[in-house]
Design a protein that fits this description.
The complex is a heterodimer. Chain A is mainly α. Helices cover 76% and strands 0% of the residues of chain A. The longest helix of chain A has 28 residues. By secondary structure, chain B is α/β, with parallel strands linked by helices. Chain B has a single domain, classed as Rossmann fold. Classes of the chains: A mainly alpha, B alpha/beta. At the A-B interface, helix 8, helix 10, helix 11, helix 12 and helix 13 of A face helix 1, helix 2 and helix 7 of B.
Chain lengths: 308, 181
């Protein structure tokens, strides 16, 4: 669908550029030169022809010129395959389209197409942010949040009343999961970075819940992150652990287990029949030395399995 | 209880499949077994034991809790108690233990009458009987794990320990929540 949209948009723009070209064949203004290059797919040349002129009159206040430049930059971005901070042409394209839309002399047909093009660029920021989360390293977080910020800024400029909380909630949940997965690998076991990763995971889940308090996945993941971090501490107990240290570790772990109970209960209240939350509650109550409560959830799991 | 949970974990795992929106699930490690194993190690290491010149090793016997046995085996086997290497023995039920009683420290998961049978068998032996059940001190255990504020703690029957001529270490006594039945 995206390819079709992009194709239609390009067809429309190229037709427009062709009109500009045929209107004044002899006069080679920067916009006409750029249009001619664009028609033949020479986006670099089109860019070079038009970009320097945009700081001068009359182009700096010409909505159509900014619109054409935006498309040239968008095509250059697509051709570059750049992502993240390296996608310079995407940033420039968004700025050009926003400049075009801010000018009253932008023709109505161009205005609608520019809005669609901006929406396309905004979505590419969001997709880019998600892709960086998939191959996550903690160093990438500021850039991911920057990409998300640009997505939100463009979307808000296009639709001022739009609620972007669901997307923001998703992004923070993905980031929480990314940090939690790093913790699960045990690469940072016992290292000073481990606590920071844990705090990042839980704070992103909480941030996600602040945007979407009804998110089952964020509640469940937060509970798991808290509980599993407690278990990681316990696993380090061995023959060198003194009684005093044992009591201290137990206090820390029980604190985490108690914290995990709250989101796990909320998740279970949202989806009472999910086996994963029943199992979570059974396990947490067991770890909190509450065998009767644990047994209650064990029985519920058995009932669920029998009824399947 | 512990064994039931292992079985349920497996069933839930098979039934739930993968969830795209959620992380890997709850860590299935038996957290209570980790704590209890370390307590048992301290009970063994911090007491004064009657000298047994012919002993080649020190034994902790576990009755009825396989995950606790695994934890002890994994982290504490062959560590020294005094000069003796620690060995861990497992008995699936009280009957199998009573057929061949062994261990200077004996942990008995079953409570009530089953615990009483073990206590009677060991009444004249310098053996530290540890339990995890209601009224376990009254049923002959010298130390019993109890839950206090969601934490695992333990109570000690100090009088009975003295009668058996056992010197429970000060460190162990100081962390107990109660030191008589």
């Amino acid at each position: 669908m995206m390819r079709t949209f992009s194709h239609l948009m390009n067809t429309s723009v190229l037709a427009g550029l062709a009109v500009s070209l045929s209107t004044v064949l002899s006069a080679q203004t920067p916009i006409e030169t750029a249009s001619r290059f664009a028609e033949s797919g020479s986006w670099d040349a089109a860019y070079d022809a038009l970009k320097p002129a945009m700081q001068q009159d009359p182009y700096r206040s010409d909505g159509h010129a900014w619109y054409v430049l935006g498309f040239v930059q968008k095509e250059l971005h697509k051709a570059s395959g750049a992502t993240g901070e390296e996608a310079v042409f995407r940033t420039e394209a968004a700025q050009s389209f926003q400049r075009a839309l801010s000018l009253p002399n932008l023709p109505a047909a161009d205005r609608e197409t520019a809005r669609k093009a901006l929406d396309f660029l905004a979505r590419s920021y969001f997709r880019d942010a998600i892709q960086w989360v998939e191959g996550f390293t903690p160093n990438a977080e500021p850039m991911i949040l920057e990409l998300m910020g640009r997505y939100e800024a463009i979307q808000t400029s296009l639709n001022p009343g739009q609620d972007l909380s669901p997307q923001r909630a998703d992004l923070h949940r993905y980031l929480g999961q990314a940090y939690a997965q790093l913790l699960e690998t045990e690469r940072f076991a016992g290292l000073p970075e481990e606590q920071g990763l844990f705090e990042s995971a839980t704070s992103h889940y909480q941030e996600s819940l602040s945007h979407d308090p009804t998110s089952y996945a964020s509640q469940y993941n937060l509970a798991i992150a808290l509980y599993n971090h407690g278990v990681r501490q316990l696993k380090r107990i061995n023959h060198t652990t003194s009684m005093f240290e044992l009591m201290e570790i137990q206090d820390v772990c029980v604190g985490l287990f108690e914290q995990s109970l709250i989101p796990m209960r909320k998740a279970q209240a949202q989806r009472p029949d999910r086996l994963e939350t029943l199992k979570g509650l059974m396990t947490i109550y067991y770890a909190l030395s509450q065998p009767e409560a644990s047994e209650e959830y064990r029985v519920k799991i058995e009932e669920q399995l029998r009824n399947r | 209880m512990a064994l039931n949970m292992v079985w349920l974990f497996s069933l839930v795992l098979l039934s739930s499949g993968a969830f795209a929106q959620v992380n890997a699930g709850v860590d299935e490690t038996d957290t209570r077994a980790i704590m209890q194993a370390n307590f048992l190690f301290h009970f063994a290491a911090s007491n004064e034991w009657p000298e047994e010149p012919e002993a080649d090793d020190f034994h902790i016997a576990v009755i009825g809790n396989f995950r606790l046995y695994e934890e002890l085996l994994d982290k504490y086997a062959l560590k020294l108690i005094g000069a003796l290497p620690l060995k861990i023995d497992f008995f699936d039920a009280v009957d199998s233990f009573l057929e061949r009683p062994a261990g200077q420290v004996v942990y008995c998961e079953p409570g009530g009458g089953e615990l009483l049978r073990v206590a009677q068998q060991l009444s004249d032996e310098p053996v530290l009987l540890v339990a995890n059940s209601e009224a376990a001190l009254a049923n002959g255990a010298l130390i019993n794990f109890v839950a206090v504020g969601n934490r695992i703690r333990y109570e000690i029957n100090a009088d009975r320990a003295r009668e058996k001529g056992m010197l429970i270490g000060n460190k162990i006594m100081s962390w107990a929540v109660k030191t008589s039945p």
